[in-house]
Amino acid sequence: MEELQRKEAKVSVWKMAAALGCALLLAACGGSPDNTTGGGGGGGCNASSAASATAAQMVKIVADPNTIGAFDPKSVSIKAGQAVEWDWQDASSSHTVTADNGSFDSGLCSQGTKFVQTFSTAGTFAYKCTIHSGMQGTVTVT
Ligand SMILES: [Cu+2]
């Protein structure tokens, strides 16, 4: 009985190690389940399908007939120390959430992905989708 429990503990440690290794080698893990949900494409996604329980605002990433994709809402406001969660809902295209100043970058992600970013300093932070020039948004932190 004790022996069995030890074995199970060992297995879960190995699973954790595998997950960690995956996180460290993002490029090599483009095919992991989290990154391929829905769209299958989008190598280089740095986000996962795990939602944040604490994000103050949520921005949906949706399809748009004019700009291919859009951030909905385009602008959100939070207080310093709070987080924003982006939620990939567009089934037809992959998108990125990339800060103009380089402070955050989700990578190219597809439907089902969630990306959470905490903002610790006040300011207006513009971001975009790097592959669709019409996709722009701002986070205002007060
Ligand atoms: Cu896009």
Can you characterise this structure?
With 142 residues, the protein is α/β, with parallel strands linked by helices. The protein has one domain (33-141): Immunoglobulin-like (Sandwich), CATH 2.60.40. It is built from 2 helices and 8 strands. The chain has helices at residues 2-24, 33-36; strands spanning 57-64, 68-72, 75-78, 83-88, 98-99, 114-118, 123-129, 132-141. Strands 2-1-4-6 form a 4-stranded mixed sheet, with no helix packed on it. It has a 4-stranded mixed sheet with strand order 3-8-7-5, with no helix packed on it. A hairpin with a 3-residue loop joins strand 1 and strand 2. It is globular. Mean pLDDT is 80; it is low at 9-42. Bound molecules: copper (II) ion. Copper (II) ion binds next to strand 2 and strand 8.
Helix content: 10-25%
Order of helices and strands: HHEEEEEEEE
Unreliable sequence segments: 9-42
In the residues, how many domains can be counted?
A: 1
> What is the CATH topology assignment?
Immunoglobulin-like
N-to-C CA distance: 56 Å
- How many E-type strands? 8
Largest beta-sheet details: 4 strands, mixed
Report the CATH C-level class: Mainly Beta
By CATH, the superfamily comes out as Cupredoxins -  blue copper proteins
Oligomer: single chain
- Beta-strand percentage range: 25-35%
Structural class: alpha/beta
How confident overall, as mean pLDDT? Answer: 80
Could you say which overall geometry the principal axes of the C-alpha atoms support? Answer: globular
